[in-house]
Amino acid sequence: MERKESGFLREHGRNLGMLFTLSCALGALAIFSPKYVTFDNLVVVALQMAFIGIACLGATYLIISGNIDLSIGSIFALTAVVAAMLAKSMPPLVAMLLAVLLGGLLGLVNGWLVWRVKLSPIIITLGTMAVLRGIVLLLTGGYSIRSVPKEFSVFAQTRLVGIPMPVIVLILLALSLHFLFTRTTIGRHVFAIGGNREACHAVGIPVRRLVLGAFLSNGLIVGLAGVLTAGRFGSASPAFGVSLELDVITAVILGGVAFNGGRGNILGVLLAVTLLGVISSGIVSLGINPHCADIIKGVALIIAVVLDQLSQEARERFQKNLAKSDR
Amino acid sequence: MQSISASAEANSAKGIPIVRCEGISKFFGGVKALDSVSVSFKAGEITALVGDNGAGKSTLVKIISGLHKHDEGKLWLGDTLVDHLTPRKARVAGIETVHQNLLLCDNLDIAANVVLGEEPTRFRFGPLKIIDHHASREKARAQLDRLGTSLPDLSRPVERLSGGQRQAIAIARAIMKAHRLVILDEPTAALGLRQTEATLEVIRRVAQTGVGVILISHNLDNVFAVADRIVALRQGRIAWDVTAAETKRETLVAAMTGLLAAPAL
Lengths: 327, 265
Prior knowledge:
heterodimer; A: mainly alpha; ABC transporter involved in vitamin B12 uptake, BtuC; two-stranded antiparallel ribbon; 75% helix; 1% strand; B: alpha/beta; Rossmann fold; six-stranded mixed sheet; four-stranded antiparallel sheet; 9 helices; globular
């Protein structure tokens, strides 16, 4: 076995940085707003983060493969609304399952369009984002779907040893994806496609199937987040998931996933989601104008992209120097 | 296609070439890219393929690797006449190409790049195959050792390596599958002196393991340094096909530029 030459710090520096920032934020909150750092409140914060966190996992998968889906906010809303509407006329569990599958189907449609048209996934999914939001508004007439049977909310509102079900779903999903990324050929090949798609074609990796699979998984995961959200509130609003893509992409990029694909880890994304969640809820708890949270999120996204770009430039400089020293 | 790889061992023992082209022509619209080219490539032999831009080198190589279909002539893999060669068939027959841009995944480590697409696995649950990381490293190590490349830490990302090391990794990956013939497209074009020397050594090692090598290069110094045989193309025709030892640099240049008629072949 070879020793790892790459240092622990370089590999985990970013995650340690986020952990440090998170501790500082929680420390400050403990001093200035002691009621924030109680088990009950932290569970509520975790519950609020869980839905974005779940959506982030799907986006992580997709962005690592070198793609992106901007329509996740609309898929989120559509699956929530459809689940709530269906639950009125069929067993809630079936309604939820169908809605999640619908999310998968929509993800697959996005994937197919991106693959077939070979255009930037940003443009194509910007289009589907508008189309799906329009469908949501048509279906609901702009009003929330209410008076859904109580059983619809059972799953999302259950707690296991005090932990809300959505948080448990997030953790289980995160563990599965971590396993997929680090242990399986599918995960390895998704990273490889994000690194050099042409190389993957050349060695016979089924690139098309894997990319479509990433879009499908993203759709299923976002659908799950949408359905759980509807379950949590016992209703579904057509305004669900507006600007979800912004929150999700901010967290994913801040979490160390390269926007161009090929790099990232689940732990980083979870830390970033937690950090952003604590900041936006902490601001409210401190009595600061909640709109400041939006500003902080935007700044966080810009910082994340700048960090991403700087490390990319550092890599290029390193290679250039390597080439020079050889000549 | 199974028969091709199965009987290949016997063929090379009998001196039957890995690939034999007989009067192969290829047209692109009205342009004749290859004009009844007859040439063969043998196991363990380094054949340099030289010629000006547009002489037909890449067309010939693309036909051999199944990317283009020839319009006229016969193409043999071992003793099998192949009517329609596809990239897949070429690969099954043990022919691999290392492209000029190497096609490495910079974000993955050395071992992952060498075994890319051929990862050793331990278990399988439906479509989920669990990578055996230890066996991956062993497999990559074995391939790199075969080339005499010393890379101490296989868990380094490929982006942190020099051009020569990257070239070695691309070749290691190719020869893992190319048990018959490996086509190297300008392997030294982007390299410095030291790295070029190392890469030429790798190419010699590949040939020593019994794999045939086609080396496309513009650099005649490199060609004379490693090639057993030199084939020059000019305007889609074979202008020169002689062992390297019998080739003088001036005559080769003359053949490539058309100042000299092709020797009787």
